[in-house]
Structure formats: structure tokens, C-alpha cells
Write a structure and sequence with these properties.
Blueprint (H helix, E strand, L loop, with lengths): L4 E6 L4 H17 L23 E8 L2 E12 L2 E9 L8 H15 L4 E6 L4 H9 L3 E3 L10 E6 L2
Parallel strand pairs: 4-5
Antiparallel strand pairs: 1-2, 2-3, 3-4, 5-7, 6-7
């Protein structure tokens, strides 16, 4: 699988990035009780948050087709936030989420972040399991995301 999937930074406004983000929003809209409105969150990131030097958006492609994404943005000096992690249903169970998370952490180091944070909704069991098994520890709320019930942090080497 690793050989057939490429993960690379892209412009968040690109067609492939927008395809993945739309699929991400549609999925969580179906999974979250009461749906999801991306404009509802106070301080919600915009495209510029996911562009250098403030951050990045990574896209996973298999045979040229977009199958996943994840983003990183600056929260404060030395601290980044991972957002918008999504893997297409057809690519789940292959370790791509873990690989994408590792690539985002490597990007965080390149951005000189010593710490990364993220949040997630309680309905996303697979995300909770991934973050916990990847060394993230639960912390108190650090943002005003109305859809989050769990907040995590990881110190990077």
C-alpha cells in the first residue's frame, strides 16, 4: 500500500483538496448528531491557515485519485493544530490514517512546532483510537469548536 499511495502538500483551494474536504464535511455531517456546519465554529480555519508559512494541507492519492487529507495550522509560536483528517471509506483499514498523521507530525517539526494539538468528536471512535495509540494525551479544552468533546496534545521530539 505504501508504494501505491503518495502523500504530498497541495494548495487547499485545489480541486483535489476541495474534493476531499467536501467528502470530509459530508461524512461528519452524517455522523454527528445534529449534523455539521463548517461555518459554526468560532476561529474555524480558512485556506490561508493551511498555506505556508502558517501551515499545510497534505493530500493522499492512490493511482492519482484523492483518497485522504489532513491539515496543519499554527496556533501560537511553537504550537500547531492538526485538522481535517479524513480517509476515503475505500482506503480505510490499510494504515493510511496512521501514515498521514505521521506525515503531519513531520510537517509540524519542519514548521518548528514542539507541540501539536487536535480535537475530535466523541462519535469518531476510529479517530480517538488512532490518536490515543499514537501518543496523544487528552488535555482540557483549548478551543471553541462546538463539535469537539475530546482535545489532545502531543510533544514532538
Amino acid at each position: 500500500m505504501k508504494e501505491s499511495v503518495e502523500i504530498a502538500p497541495v494548495d487547499p483551494a485545489s480541486a483535489d483538496a476541495q474534493h476531499c474536504l467536501a467528502a470530509y464535511f459530508a461524512e461528519i455531517g452524517n455522523r454527528f448528531p445534529g449534523g455539521f456546519d463548517p461555518a459554526k465554529g468560532k476561529g474555524a480555519p480558512d485556506h490561508d491557515d493551511f498555506r505556508s508559512p502558517r501551515g499545510c494541507l497534505l493530500l493522499a492519492r492512490r493511482d492519482g485519485e484523492p483518497i485522504g487529507c489532513g491539515a496543519l495550522r499554527t496556533l501560537e509560536s511553537g504550537v500547531g493544530e492538526i485538522k481535517r483528517m479524513w480517509i476515503a471509506p475505500t482506503a480505510r483499514g490499510l494504515g493510511l490514517g496512521r501514515r498521514l498523521l505521521a506525515e503531519l507530525e513531520a510537517e509540524a517539526v519542519r514548521h518548528r512546532f514542539h507541540t501539536v494539538r487536535l480535537d475530535t468528536n466523541a462519535t469518531l471512535d476510529e479517530a480517538l483510537n488512532l490518536y490515543r495509540s499514537s501518543g496523544y494525551r487528552e488535555i482540557p479544552r483549548f478551543n471553541e469548536n462546538p463539535y469537539a468533546q475530546h482535545w489532545f496534545e502531543k510533544t514532538l521530539a
